[in-house]
Amino acid sequence: ANTETYLKSVALKHMPPNLQAVDLGKSVQK
Amino acid sequence: QSYLPVPPGVGMEENFLSLDDILLSQEKLPTRTECVFPRLGFVEKTSDTRDIPEGTKMEMPLWLAKGLYDNKRRLVSVEQPKIYRQGWRTVFSADPNVVDLHKMGPYYYGLGSQLLHFDSPENPEIAQTVLQTYIGRFRRIMDSSQNAYNEDTSALVERLDVLERSLFRTGQIGLNDFQRWEKG
Amino acid sequence: MFCEKAIELIRELQRASDGQLPAFNEDGIRQVLEEMKALYEQNQTDVNEAKSEGRSDLIPTIKFRHCCLLRNQRCIAAYLYDRLLRIRSLRWEYGSVLPTSIRFHMCAEELEWFNQYKKSLATYMRSLGGDEGLDVTQDMQPPKS
Hints:
The complex is a heterotrimer. Chain B has helices spanning about 20-25, 60-70, 85-95, 100-105, 110-115, 125-145, 155, 160-180; strands at about 30-35, 55-60, 75-80. By secondary structure, chain B is mainly alpha-helical. Chain C has helices spanning about 5-15, 25-55, 60-95, 100-105, 110-125. Chains in contact: A-B, A-C, B-C.
């Protein structure tokens, strides 16, 4: 939650609407 | 060293947040446009049209080629970089140790694996050559990595590709850990 | 070519591969976000034209720009996330008070993230080892003997 809040506040909220979410599950290596 | 970056994906996988994979996917591929791309004309400053015409040959970064590549509606076709073609594959199968993979790469294995995303009848040979090259060079990398204790290793890694350098680093860490363990 | 600024952010971190924390590149982030805004607005225009006038020939270009948008998004996310990994490791190497020189390299939101991380770690450590908790950041190296 801390990391998602951070990414949203610094960058994602300034991106186009359809790009404002990043699935942090992708940060978990296969 | 508690900073552990997001590692690259294995084989054909890419890890979304891996810096290594982002840099790998910046590598250029020879491509040919299979349709017109209107209003994107930036390839030739001279041309009056603002379109990229069909049939334009251009070096495209891997991330863009993968994004545009679509089996159904072909927007671009991807050719193999020279080092993955028959001629070089023959050189690799003769003796993979003679090749300077840093100069020819430096993402020889990563880019070779990513090429398999694009349909080509040569994919099995490319995959086989990439694999055999790794196997053929592995022993020498591990030997040199295990025997270089407390010395400058830049000459030993000079001709290694990115994946081989991380293998060498892993060998060095193991060697240094073992030496420290022996000294108590 | 699009996405050049974005890849430059990644290269900047890759050059500091020993885990150092370079200064937060606020200007770089802003330029990438501006490029994304321009790409998105151009795509909006073309999508409307493709729909209203049946210009299906515009679809490859729309797809091209969307690839660039995804690329910019990925580079920014990876840049910010990798910096968090570096900042997190600083807690384990320097303790909970970071040297001023390092704090200067962090943006306000990173400092906020760091404070939240410290709280989460402290909560976790209090939950270990009975009443007095256990400071897991001590003794990161095995004792000599």
